[in-house]
Write a structure and sequence with these properties.
- There is one protein chain.
- It is built from one helix and eight strands; from the N terminus they run E-E-E-E-E-E-E-E-H.
- It is mainly beta.
- It has one domain.
- The longest helix has 14 residues.
- It starts with a strand and ends in a 6-residue tail after the last helix.
Amino acid sequence: MIKTFRGLLLDGEQDKIRLSTKKGKIGYRIVKFQVMENEPGDNALEGACKIFKILQTSVTNTVDFSDGNLLAAADYNKHGDTQNAKSVIIIFDQEIFNQDIYVTWKDNTSDEKINYYLELEVMTLSDNAAAVSTLRDIRLNPQVGA
């Protein structure tokens, strides 16, 4: 089964996507992540839309693939003064998770908004897989168990 989520993020904002369950027996994996500007036209946009396993204390446009909490990143660049000068690079991990996730957007050049669209594959986890996923999240983020 596939679950879809979509939203509009203001510059520097983050959305919480509620996925956690009491027993953690439902797992998710990203199968599609897309971004699109809010007002297509002549405005310039340079930013990063990212998906994390934990709430971010600050929203930046820095992408660090060594961050164990980063699930996906979209680099969106569009220069308003030239035709077809747009590039979008999207990378996402195939990791299975069973907790809430957070989508962030930070524009480097202006205060433009971004739309995001996310498809998650839903799967039932065994007791062992649910425990491993939850323990991994607690290890990476001690507040999860609090």
